[in-house]
Amino acid sequence: VEFLYCDLASMKSIWQFVQRFRAKNCPLHVLVNNAGVMLVPERKTEDGFEEHFGLNYLGHFLLTNLLLDTLKQSGTHSHNARIITVASATHYVGKLHLNDLQSRCSYSPHGAYAQSKLALVLFTYQLQHLLTANGSHVTANVVDPGVVNTDLYKHISWVVKVAKWMTAWLFFKTPEEGASTSIYAAVSPEMEGAGGCYLYNEERTKSADVTYDEELQRRLWTESCKMVGISDESSRVP
Length: 238
Hints:
The protein is of the alpha/beta class. Helices cover 44% and strands 10% of the residues. It has one domain: NAD(P)-binding Rossmann-like Domain (Rossmann fold). It is built from six helices and five strands; from the N terminus they run αβαβαβααββα. It has a five-stranded mixed beta sheet with strand order 1-2-3-4-5, with helices on both faces.
């Protein structure tokens, strides 16, 4: 195991990480996009993005795009490289505000978090479309880990913290249990060659209806490319 530092809230850090990783000339068979913050007070990343959207979504969007060439080179017909992105059931209640992705008009921690997770699902489906269109041996899937007992909840109110402390053993998964579906997506032979899936408890399930809106997928992708400063490859794909 080797650790390479990468701050998903910093576009500069992501570029630096990718340069260091590429310099090693290693193949890349599995990428798990798992970083995240939840219900943080209104604040911005160093690049001026609302933190939920910037870290949870845009950081992973840029990282994945910068590593795509390596993933494509690493995948084969019999063993596809795999991209797994961790979303959340909160995407079901999320709304994507294309005209206000930074939540400047009215900030809600719950709304901003849900929007970032909805964006991750839309991103995954559009990414799979592009990978399929290019004939790449790479698959992209999105995972709902369930309610997991981690430090992700440190910004909730003290009342909810007390309730969580009292009921965690009953309603919350352990981190090991929460990781199981991501691991399934990353290594299971059953997922070989399968992309564009939403997985919960190691089962394929249906995500929110809006996530299957292909026009919304494309518009978010195009806007995301502009925000992180990369070329929009989707414009070259029918």
